[in-house]
Amino acid sequence: MAILVLGGAGYIGSHMVDRLVNEGQEKVVVVDSLVTGHRAAVHPDAVFYQGDLADQDFMRTVFKEHADIDAVIHFAAYSLVAESMADPLKYFDNNTAGMVKLLEVMHECGVRYIVFSSTAATYGIPEEIPILETTPQKPINPYGESKLMMETIMRWADQAYGIKYVPLRYFNVAGAKPDGSIGEDHGPETHLLPIVLQVAQGKREKIAIFGDDYNTPDGTNVRDYVHPFDLADAHLLAVEYLRNGNPSTAFNLGSSTGFSNLQIVEAARKVTGHPIPLEIADRRPGDPDTLIASSEKARAILGWQPKFDNIETIIQTAWAWHSSHPDGYNDR
Ligand code: UDP
């Protein structure tokens, strides 16, 4: 058997590929356009193709050259909320239309399983906390909408063609491989923790916290952080779940604990020993007050047991990466 990782050169995908190669159970094939991914992030023992998953001739070649691929893990998508507000069609084209093209080729080539990165952003302003898989999905930005549409498309493709799927709805992903060899490198960086750590590195003077008048204990947004190693575990379990003949279903992936933006800065001060100055700035459009997952379903059905349940440990792993790679992969 072989497994295909789409977007395997990205932040979360590269941790997945590293894990799969180290498991040593099966051949690992990676496709990445390298538009946002990094070639150096891909484990050298994976088979690598540079290309766009919407290029059907290219994808046919990949599936033909590796006819033993039965499962796809799909990380290849654009994922910035603000960018999606400014340029929604880019998201519906790359993420949503890309999914249609991918499923057509999977159907044609008889590939039956797909595990896919969905997101807490599909819930919009959640109707309940903690968020369950049954909480209504009402996205408030094109990024979340593009992912919800991908889930919907997969539901109908399952019904018509029997392609079984598991959307994994991630909450806020943070941290890196603890040895500091792979990690998060976005250009430009927009996420809270990497920016906070850039202040600790001396690359920025201070962190701007977007809003302190939310309906939360300290007024700043509360988020639920999950480590890419724990996500990799969940993807492996989800592939096994599908290969065992189970029905398509979605799972939330978070730690079930919320941290405010101010708590993240405070924890980063402890880990780095740097004062990390901050200022309060205007709210960022599209940010719900609080996002906390219930991951009971993943624990009960997949047997998922996240190991990185301490925010300082998560930040330590991110710091190991950022301090050893001050310019990231340095390939742009
Ligand atoms: N945030 C912030 N300053 C920044 C970047 C992010 O205050 O420079 C806040 C953001 O408003 C949200 C939280 O940090 O409340 C997490 O945002 P991030 O962009 O890291 O992840 P998202 O929740 O958008 O996936």
From TrEMBL:
Catalytic reactions of this protein: UDP-alpha-D-glucose = UDP-alpha-D-galactose
Top class in the EC scheme: isomerase
NCBIfam families hit by this protein: galE
This protein's name: UDP-glucose 4-epimerase
Pathway as given in its UniProt record: Carbohydrate metabolism; galactose metabolism
Residue ranges the record marks as coiled coil: none
Top-level division of the source organism's lineage: Bacteria
Residues in NAD-dependent epimerase/dehydratase domain copies: 3-254
GO function terms (MF aspect): UDP-glucose 4-epimerase activity
